[in-house]
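Exercise 7.
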Amino acid sequence: MSAQKKLLIVDDEKHIRAIFLKVLSLMAPDVKVDIAVNGAEAVDAFREGRHDVLVMDLHMPVKDGFSAFKDIKAICENEHINMPAVIFCSGYQPPEELAEIIAREPRHCMLTKPVLVDTLMKEINSRL
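Solution. The predicted structure, written as tokens, is:
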């Protein structure tokens, strides 16, 4: 029996978190979903939960999504564990450095808000 897949939703907007959570509960009921409201919480949640996929906003208070990505990547390198796939969801252009990472590492991607449910689920399912 395979281990349950884990996903972390990271967004500072309550309604976005609620929509993503509802979609996932209906379309991926076997996936364990956790929530973080900023990048700092995302890093802590990943440390504890070791998620397979992160759906993460870029612009958030406390710590932005790209800073959280870099912190999580450092954790994975230091602890010799697999880096989760990260699906960035934002209404903003990603920083050039992040765009280069996404181009180099197709396990990560960038979706522009508003995100269509079918598009979000396609990207999540292809990474779980």
